[in-house]
Amino acid sequence: MKKILITGGSGFIGTNFINLISKKKLKILNIDKISKISTAEKFKKIHSTKNYSFVKYNLSDKRRLLSIFNKFKPDIVVNFAAESHVDRSISDPIYFIKNNIISSTNLFFSYKEYFKKRKIKLFHISTDEVYGSIRQGQFKENDNYNPSSPYSASKASSDLIAKAFNRTYKTKIKILNLTNNFGPYQYPEKFIPTLIFHFLKNKKAPIYGAGLNIREWMYVDDCCNAIVKCIFSDVKYEQLNIGSGVRITNLDLAKLLFKIMKKRKLTKLKENNFLKNVKDRPGHDIRYALNSNFFKKNIKLNISKNLKNGLISTINWYIENKKWLKSVNKSYDFKRLGLID
Ligand SMILES: NC(=O)c1ccc[n+]([C@@H]2O[C@H](COP(=O)([O-])OP(=O)(O)OC[C@H]3O[C@@H](n4cnc5c(N)ncnc54)[C@H](O)[C@@H]3O)[C@@H](O)[C@H]2O)c1
Fold it and tell me: Which of 29, 58, 280, 326 is most enclosed, with most CB atoms within 10 A?
C-alpha cells in the first residue's frame, strides 16, 4: 500500500483532500501545527482508522522532520502547510514570511535528505496569487512572479526555493498553482463563508471597495481530485497551473450567492440591500486568471460542480455542520484585519 505524507492536512484544502483520499488504498500521515483556523482531528472522517495517523508538529522546527520521514517512509509528499489569509499577512507580515518560507524550506531540506535513498516526488501547493494581478489574458507557468501581498510574496519565495532545490539537489518537487478554492471546512473569515454567515444572520455582508476584483473559483473537491490526478500521473513538468476558468467579480459572486439563499428563504435581507461597501484591502489585486491549458490537455480536469452547484453544496454543508462551526468560531472574533491606517 502506497504511503502519503501530507503537511497542513488540517487546514481547509488539506482536510478535504484527506477525506477524499481516505477512500483510496493509501496509508496517510498528516503533519500539522494546528492553528486556530485548523479543523480538529475529531472532524476527520478517517481519524480513527488504522490507515491514518496524525503528528502535531510545527514545520518551522526542522529537528524531528527527517526522522518522521525515515520512520514513515513516504512514497509521495504533498505540502499544503502555510499561513494563508491575505489580510492576516498584511497585519503580521513577519510572521507570514517566517512561517511560510522557513516551514517549506525545512520540509524541502528533510525531503532532499530522504530523496538520497528514495527518488519520490513532493507536490508543493501554491497559488495563482504569486503571479500578481493581470487585467487581461492569463498567466502561464513560465510567466514571472509579481506578488502583491506578504502572503503571496511568501508563497512566491517558497516556490522559488523549490525550484532552486530541484536545480541544486536534482530533487523532484512539483509546484501546483491553484486558483481560489471554496467549499466545506473553510474558515469563516474567508470571502464565501463570510457572505453565507452574514446572510444567514440577516446582516449585510462586507464587500471590499467596489467589489470589482475578479477571482477564478474552483470547488474544493474538484481541486483535490485534480491534485490526486497529478500525483498519479507520469507527465513531466516542474510547475502546473490548475484553474477552472470560472472568473467572476466579488460583487457578482455575492449577488449570485444571495440570490440562491433568498430563493431558499435562508435570509430575510432585501434584494436591493444586502451588502455594505467597506475600505478596500491595501494592494488589492484586481484580477487573477490562470492559463491551465497544459493541465487540461495532459492531465485532464473533471469539473463536477459549476459555480452555482458548488455554492449550493457549500451553503448546505455550513448549515448542516453546526458542531464544526461552533468549534472553529471559538477562535474567530470577526474583526477586520489588514487595514494599515
Ligand atoms: N484556499 C485557497 O483558496 C487556496 C488557493 C490557492 C492556493 N492555496 C494554498 O493551498 C494550501 C492550503 O490552503 P488552505 O486554504 O487549506 O489553508 P489553511 O490556512 O486553511 O490551512 C493551512 C494549514 O497548514 C497548517 N500550517 C501552517 N503553517 C504550518 C507549519 N509551520 N507547520 C505545520 N503546519 C502548518 C495550518 O495549521 C493549517 O491547518 C496553502 O499552501 C495555500 O497557500 C489555497
Answer: 29
- Beta-strand ranges (E) seen in 171-238 are 173-178, 180-182, 205-208, 214-219
Helices (H) and strands (E) in the chain, counts: 12, 12
User: Is 315 among the domain residues?
Assistant: no
Which SS3 state, helix, strand or coil, does residue 323 take? helix
In the reported structure, the alpha carbon of residue 11 is separated from the centroid of ligand 1 by a whole-number distance in angstroms of 6
pLDDT at 335: 85
Report how many domains make up the chain.
1
pLDDT at position 176? 98
pTM summary value: 0.98
Active site amino acids: 128-129, 151
Ligand 1 center from residue 83 Cα (angstroms): 6
Task: Tell me the average pLDDT across 206-215.
Answer: 98
Q: Does residue 117 register a pLDDT over 90?
A: yes
Q: Which three cell numbers stand for residue 337?
A: 484585519
Residue 48 lies in a domain: yes
Asked if pLDDT for residue 341 goes beyond 80, the answer is no
120-132 pLDDT, tens digit each:
999 999 999 999 9
Residue 301 lies in a domain: no
Cβ of 13 closer than 6 Å to ligand 1, yes or no, is yes
Residues paired with 126 in a beta bridge: 177
Which residue minimizes the CA distance to atom 5 of ligand 1?
180
Which residues are within 8 A (CB) of 154 and not within 5 positions of it... i.e. 6 or more apart? 82, 83, 89, 96, 97, 99, 100, 101
Gap between the Cα atoms of 166 and 91, Å rounded: 33
* Residue range of the domain that includes 107: 2-183+214-242
Answer yes or no: is 74 within a domain. yes
Q: Is 167 helix (H, G, I), strand (E, B) or coil?
A: helix
Q: What is the DSSP string of 259-314?
A: HHHHHTT----BTTB-EEEEPPPTT--SB--B--HHHHHHT-------HHHHHHHH
Which CATH number covers residue 119? 3.40.50.720
Taking the centre of ligand 1 as the mean of its atom positions, its distance from the CA of residue 126, in whole angstroms, is: 9
Task: Read off φ and ψ for residue 262, nearest 5 degrees.
Answer: -65, -45
